[in-house]
Amino acid sequence: MKGIVFSEFIELVEEKFGLEILDAIIEEADLPSQGAYTQVGTYDHKELLVLLDKLSAHSGIDATSLSKIFGEHLLKRFAELYPQFFVDIDNCFDLLKTIDTRVHLEVQQLYPEAELPSFDNMMVNADTMQLIYQSSRPFSALAYGLINGSASYFGETIDIQMNDQSDAGKSFVVFTLKKRA
Ligand code: HEM
Predict the structure, then answer these.
(1) Which residues does a 6 A CB cutoff place in the pocket of ligand 1?
(2) Which label site among 13, 147, 166, 171 has the fewest CB atoms less than 10 Å from its CB?
(3) Which stretches within 60-154 are classed as H helix?
(4) What pLDDT, in 10s, does the model give residues 23-34?
């Protein structure tokens, strides 16, 4: 997983939980990288799972909720760092439709070593979209946060339902997203 994801996580922890907790979770996690991430480096995605677990132990917030919070933060940061993906888009469904066909495609071209999930989308009606997340990594809660963050970015509110059909080592989650009037 690209270092940008890790460095944003580290910044969020420092900002929301403080340097002391950040240092403690890095030390306890005992990571191959020692928590020294560069944006362009590549690291084992399991390091993020360990850091989330350690942060959960220190904060008393479960790792799933932390992943969602992180996803929301990450979307805001992506919008700052990669504004080109947000130009000419004025609602969250339109952004979500471009993840596979544009955003992650370009990320993959830029960083061939990146490991991207896939998102198939289908409109159920004008206010409801289905998004199917498939990955060999367990980041559906992060996806949830990124989806919620996309809605907030456009000032929208959506209800998100998750139907998790994952099995060992393979994530398969059907998200049903309903725009609130
Ligand atoms: C709009 C700007 C976005 C950018 C620039 C972006 C970029 C990235 C990058 C660099 C990674 C790390 C890939 C790696 O090296 O392993 C990643 C992973 C991921 N992205 Fe995006 N992304 C964006 C939007 C989204 C949105 C809106 C969603 C949710 C629907 C999403 C879902 C994910 C997930 C779940 C992962 C974790 C990897 C996995 O699950 O297998 N991304 N993205």
Answers:
(1) 1-2, 4-5, 78, 82, 85, 96, 99, 103-104, 107, 114-117, 119, 135, 137, 139, 142-143, 146-147, 150
(2) 166
(3) 63-81, 92-98, 104-110, 140-153
(4) 999 999 999 999
Q: Which residues pair with 118 in a beta bridge?
A: 134
- Ligand 1 centroid, distance to 116 Cα (angstroms): 7
Residue 40 pLDDT class (50, 70, 90 cuts): confident
Please report which helix (H) or strand (E) contains residue 171, including its range: strand 171-179
Rounded to whole angstroms, the Cα distance separating 12 from 46 reads 18
Give per-residue pLDDT as tens, 50-67: 999 999 999 999 999 999
Helix (H, G, I), strand (E, B) or coil at 26: helix
Question: Contact at 8 Å (CB) between 150 and 164?
Answer: no
Residue nearest (by alpha carbon) to ligand 1 atom 21: 104
Torsion 128-105-44-77 (CA) sign: negative
> Ligand 1 atom 16: the closest Cα is on which residue?
1
- Other beta carbons less than 10 A from residue 118's beta carbon: 11
